[in-house]
């Protein structure tokens, strides 16, 4: 996968205004969280539909005959099928945001870089949440098995989830690292997380109710 040139390519006036408002291509993350798609590619799309948008530069992985993933660098798409005779059905996609801390923009798919430009190595959850809130888009907190090391947040309309790296219990230093991640970094963004899955998480990992004495 090629690295981008240091000099940014000329942008249209609309692209320039977007980059001024959302430096380091924050606009990409906003678009994914609000739309539930990657450049228009949906979680339910077929492999051919995703390839038509993101291109053919991917690593392909199989888990048996009925599960497949394609790694496009920053983005991974996953499919399942009932049997070899059935077509692949889209299951979910994940933005592996934490990869940027090590690889930088070189890990980002070319089609995404062409649209949004260069990417910063860290995406701060508080900044993402603030920019979404400014656009009237909320993220709900969802209990999760990965707490307290990570917190999970959900956008109901798009069914996109955001996982952020947090301090482990007993640590109070705001810049403590998890690998190359900083506390407060977005670790990954995924779609789709359904309302039924959120309800299950709340029942399984939410605060326990005590019976009245």
Query: What is the helix tally?
Result: 7
Strand content: 15-25%
Helix and strand string, N-terminal first? HHHEEEEHHHEEEEEEH
Structural class: alpha+beta
Features:
213 residues, eight-stranded antiparallel sheet, two-stranded antiparallel sheet, 7 helices
Short characterization:
The protein has 213 residues and is α+β, with helices and mostly antiparallel strands. The chain has 7 helices and 10 strands.
Outline the structure in words.
The chain is α+β, with helices and mostly antiparallel strands. The protein is 28% helix and 22% strand. The protein is built from seven helices and ten strands. It has helices at 13-21, 26-35, 47-54, 100-103, 110-116, 125-134, 195-205; strands spanning 59-62, 67-71, 75-80, 89-95, 140-142, 150-155, 160-165, 177-178, 181-182, 186-191. The strands form two sheets. The chain has an eight-stranded antiparallel β-sheet with strand order 1-2-3-4-10-7-6-5. The chain has a two-stranded antiparallel ribbon with strand order 8-9. Strand 2 and strand 3 (75-80) form a beta hairpin. The protein is globular, with a radius of gyration of 18 Å. Residues 1-21 and 169-175 have low confidence and may be disordered.
Indicate the topology.
Layout: H1 13-21, H2 26-35, H3 47-54, E1 59-62, E2 67-71, E3 75-80, E4 89-95, H4 100-103, H5 110-116, H6 125-134, E5 140-142, E6 150-155, E7 160-165, E8 177-178, E9 181-182, E10 186-191, H7 195-205
Antiparallel strand pairs: 1-2, 2-3, 3-4, 4-10, 5-6, 6-7, 7-10, 8-9
